[in-house]
Amino acid sequence: MDYKKMAAEILKLVGGEKNVSGVTNCMTRLRFSLNDPKKADVEGIKKVKGVQGVVTKNGQFQVVIGTDVGNVCEEIKKLGSFGDNMAPSQQDGEEKKGIVGMFFGTLTAIFQPVIPALAGSGMIKALLVVPGCDRIQRPLFEGRRIRIKNK
User: Which domain holds residue 137?
Assistant: First the structure.
């Protein structure tokens, strides 16, 4: 694959060097910070050989390439006078959150570590309820059973 040619085509179709304020890559995507996202020719980029798709997410213009993305990113950086000077929040894939987003983010961070324990205890409880599991229940609770007398 000719990474230099691919890089030149992509750079031209995103609006040229003047439209790109920063470029970096993750495992499979080129991540552009564009001055004017409307200048990018999305359909043209999708037709470039080696490009699997285009995504606009979190204020970034992302070109899905695959595992060859590192080579293409290097070639694009050689073609332009920009680096990976993207805003830190954009590099992490985070967007600005309101109070509701912060609340749910905190709530998720609190309960996420507990989910496996809850799922495991639920599975054990389900096994204990299944009829015919006396062989499991008896050794676990021998001597600790609470017997309820019928009136």
Answer: 102-141
